[in-house]
Amino acid sequence: MKNRNRYFLAEFIGSSFLVMIIVGSGLMAENLTNDVAVMLIANTIATGAGLFVLISVFADVSGAHFNPFVSIAMAITGKLKKRLLPYYIFAQLFGCLLGVGLANFFFEHEIYELSTKSRDGIYIFTSEVIATLGLIIIIFGSMKSGKIAVAACVGLYITAGYWFTSSTSFANPAVTIARTFTESFTGINYMNTPYYILAELIGMLIAVFIIKSLFSKKN
């Protein structure tokens, strides 16, 4: 029970700070410029840096997943006990929802507000499939090199993902749900949220299949 509480707290705090960083940096950028490219650069740098720090800090406690589909992939491949999965997912969801509320509050927005930012289309859907697939493969591929390698790889991949994918690489259903509740540069219309989550699920399932082929001990 003590370990479960530690895992829950680490995933809750890490997920909360992750969304505060994503949404808060987007809100700050909106306050400073009207140039969308500059906004994206600011948001990208903050998110990549934040991921590196958060993973480095919490990896030795909970594994620093901060993402339900990462936790599910870990459970499917035997790297996370299945009985712990609900603790991880609830912590991630509630942490992300707290994070978006705090970020909105920091910048004098309503604590929770529905986004009207449209992110739809088959191109964006496909982009989010690939973004999630890539993230999970990179996590598993870098794990043997230690937490700093994972932190660097994930931070740099998401930094790149903001730019090479039209979806801007959410790659995380908890973050996607949270970003539904900010009327800002980083938001997503609630009508698009289920499609993002479906795309992320497909990406995760394909990634698990690839991981078993690439990184299996039998190979």
The CATH architecture would be Up-down Bundle
What's the CATH class, please?
Mainly Alpha
The portion of residues assigned to helices is over 70%
The CATH superfamily title = Glycerol uptake facilitator protein
**CATH fold-level label:** Glycerol uptake facilitator protein
Provide the number of structural domains: 1
Description:
The chain is mainly α and 219 residues long. It has one domain (2-214): Glycerol uptake facilitator protein, CATH 1.20.1080. The protein is 72% helix and 0% strand. It contains eight helices and no strands. The chain has helices at 2-32, 36-62, 68-76, 85-106, 122-142, 147-164, 173-179, 193-214. Helix 3 runs antiparallel to helix 4 (85-106). The longest helix has 31 residues, at 2-32. The radius of gyration is 16 Å and the shape is globular. The model has no long low-confidence stretch (mean pLDDT 96).
Features:
Glycerol uptake facilitator protein; 72% helix
Present the secondary structure layout:
Layout: H1 2-32, H2 36-62, H3 68-76, H4 85-106, H5 122-142, H6 147-164, H7 173-179, H8 193-214
Helix pairs in contact: 1-2, 1-4, 1-7, 2-6, 3-4, 3-8, 4-7, 5-6, 5-8
